[in-house]
Amino acid sequence: MTTFEAINEAFSAVFTELFGGGSARMELTSPEDVEQTGVEFSIKLSGKRSQELASLSGGERALVAAALILALLRVRPAPFCLLDEVDAALDDQNIARFSQQIAGLSARTQMMIITHNAVTVEAASTVYGVTMHEDGVSELLSVRLDEVGTSNDGVGGLTEK
Question: How far is C-alpha 38 from the chain's CA centre?
């Protein structure tokens, strides 16, 4: 119960930060039988009434799931975390807030995010990729973004500082 309460508190805080307001909490379905209980989520977006997860949009559900994962990492930091396309359903404003959360956690946890989103890539300190200059020959690349500047040529290319 102590861990559940700590995660619930962290979840509420992360949710409010990710959504820029609102509130969320987790509730046990059978608090008298902790070993067999389930968990329900109570979500209240800013300016709206409380809703169930099923009534949220895909992006909102993705952000709630991200809030739970980030809350777990706040309470019990892991040495390494791999997130695959968690930002796919998010708009640029939500991705910016999500990236701030990742930056805060990265001091204790090595974060690796698989993404195709340019806003998420811009928030990274290092980008890894695979390219194919000639058919059938893949090359791995690694770019430390703190060592290069980004060009504003509309193509998203990188230039040296």
Answer: 24
The number of C-alpha atoms within 13 Å of 63 and in the hemisphere containing its C-beta is: 31
Q: How many CA atoms lie within 13 A of 81 on its CB side?
A: 21
For the chain, the straight-line distance linking the first and the last C-alpha, in angstroms and rounded, comes to 52
> For the chain, what's the residue count?
161
Name the residue type at position 129.
Answer: G
Which helix (H) or strand (E) segment holds residue 112: the answer is strand 110-114
Cα–Cα dist 43/109, whole Å: 27
Give the pTM.
0.78
Per DSSP bridges, beta strands 158-159 and 149-150 are antiparallel
pLDDT digits (tens, 9 = 90+) for 109-161: 999 999 988 888 888 888 888 888 889 999 988 888 777 665 444 334 443 33
Cα 131–Cα 135–Cα 138 angle in degrees, nearest 5: 35
Q: d(Cα 145, Cα 142) in Å, to the nearest integer?
A: 9
